[in-house]
Amino acid sequence: MADVVPYEESHLPQLQRLVNGHLGAVMPGWALPSGFIADRLMRDPEEYVTDPWVVERKTLCGVEKGRVCAAAHLLRYRGPQENPAYRNAADVAWFFAWPESVGAADAVLTAVRRQVVDWGADRTGLCHGLPGGPCYGVADSWPHIAACLKNAGWVLKADCVDTLYAGPLTGIEPPCDPPVPEVSLQRGIEITDASFLAMVNGKEIAHCEVVADMTLGGELPAYAGWSELSSLLLDEEWRNRGIGTWLVRHAVAWLRLAGRERIVLAVAREGEEAGAGRFYRRFGWQPVTRLDKGWSFATPGA
Fold it and tell me: For the chain, where are the E strands, in sequence order?
């Protein structure tokens, strides 16, 4: 039987193996340093909007015979002065368990529910976000995690699904002249990194955003060589005229100039239905996993 205990520093090596075991099943070679994991238990500077609203954090570990077999990280948010969606709310930032450790997983999820009830949270969600690209949700390579959540009463919204694509930056044609004469290119800056804008008479009609440094300034050395396409949007009236392809080629040339070799991106279900997946396959990028998002449960007594 597993004991559920608060995280302590001696758990870190086993917690790192647990986290990286799951992350490596999403993308080969991805891994987080132990110091990075420990720091994110205290704060998450990448979540610069919501992290300041967090007033309490708790990490629970399911331990069997001295081994960390399951773990969850919980967040409690402030009161009514914050965004209404976060008022009196709690989130499970992440939950992991080894496939064979069902008992430890169940014990941790039971403790999670008990904790959010003690907090008096009106709503509890599951973020399941990990640093390094658009990895938000429960991957289809973690069927044991989905099964444990469902057994514990968590519910998944059917339409909250992303498909994660990845592939090389080699072999993609360099950018050429604009496909439409009146369109010009403008490069800009975004919170994530660089953006490439298609402009017509000073008006933006399309943009493509990329992240050239997924190592977060060297904190994540396993992500060296990787880049992310974080956004590609095009006004409806300008679609099917080659502008999206033209922007992506400019972005790829920029990323190759930075020494990047591979790219990752997420496509939401509505994007897949609209043909975004087919579009990205033209560049040689293929789906690698599905990410189920939108997990939640109603807090008992709320």
Answer: 3-6, 54-64, 67-77, 89-97, 123-126, 129-130, 135-136, 138-139, 155-156, 161-168, 184-189, 194-200, 203-211, 226-234, 262-268, 286-292, 295-297
Q: Which two tokens stand for residue 114?
A: 């008990």
**Residue type, position 102, single letter:** V
In angstroms, rounded to a whole number, what is the distance separating the alpha carbons of residues 78 and 54? 6
Q: To the nearest 10°, the Cα dihedral for 266, 26, 31, 22?
A: 130
Per-residue pLDDT of 43-96, as tens digits, reads: 998 888 888 889 999 999 999 999 999 999 999 998 656 678 788 899 999 999
Confidence label for 191 from pLDDT (cuts 50, 70 and 90): confident
- Cα–Cα distance measured from residue 286 to residue 123, given in angstroms and rounded to the nearest whole number: 36
CATH architecture group of domain 171-260:
3-Layer(aba) Sandwich (3.40)
CB 185 within 8 A of CB 250: yes
Where do the domains of the chain lie?
A: 3-159+293-297, 171-260
| 3-159+293-297 CATH fold | Aminopeptidase (3.40.630)
Name the β-bridge partners of 156.
295
CA 267 to chain centre: 12
